[in-house]
Write a structure and sequence with these properties.
With about 200 residues, this protein is an alpha+beta fold. It is about 20% helix and about 40% strand.
């Protein structure tokens, strides 16, 4: 898993379908077979050298994330998987994108910027104010939610060290909702059946 704390920005150097090569500041430290979050998408390192690594995105990943529209020269957010015993500084991010959203607007708000993103309904139902969400692999706190999307605030540090700093309205983004919210929804039907069973037994 990941934490949503981006380690560095890289660049897509080349691609052939789902086969991609990324310039990466920490490429020399990677091992073949380990996981790297590329703008929120978990990919497996297949080869690496001193400056770049290669990975393959399967057709489903290309359809369900913004990786399918990446072009050489596009910047990406990079994060290595959290080591056992490592510090969880952001929130639990799996690198399993729930849907593609888009930046609707950005506006200055004091010392930071407010970014409003649109998101598909199947993702938005897991987004709650003051909860966590990952946008292009960046762990963010939801400030507000509306019927079409949600708003986050980013500080200058986040703007400078991630692709969110140069994102323009209309740009696609990978959105991953908080995994805890998804597990809660998955457990609710079971809880309802248990409550129903207890009710009938007392009658």
């Amino acid at each position: 898993m990941f934490t949503g704390l981006v380690e560095a920005m890289g660049t897509l150097l080349a691609r052939n379908g789902g086969h991609m090569r990324f310039c990466c500041p920490f490429a020399a430290e990677l091992a073949v077979g380990e996981s790297v979050s590329v703008s929120g998408v978990c990919l497996t390192v297949e080869a690496r050298d001193e400056v770049a690594f290669a990975a393959t995105a399967v057709p489903m990943t290309l359809r369900r994330t913004s990786l399918g529209s990446l072009r050489p020269g596009t910047p990406v957010n990079l994060e290595r998987a959290l080591p056992a015993g490592g510090r969880l500084g952001g929130h639990i991010v799996q690198g399993h994108v729930d849907g593609v959203g888009q930046l609707l607007e950005r506006r200055p708000d004091g010392d930071w910027e407010a970014l409003r993103f649109g998101a598909p309904p199947e993702v938005l139902r897991f987004v709650v104010p003051r909860g966590s969400v990952a946008v292009d692999g960046v762990s963010l706190t939801v400030a507000e939610r509306d019927p079409l999307g949600f708003t986050v605030a980013i500080v200058p540090h986040t703007a400078a060290l991630t692709t969110l700093g140069t994102l323009r309205p209309g740009a696609p983004v990978n959105v991953e909702a908080d995994v805890i919210a998804k597990y809660v929804e998955g457990l609710l039907p079971t809880a309802e059946r248990l409550d129903s069973g207890r009710g009938s037994g007392n009658g």
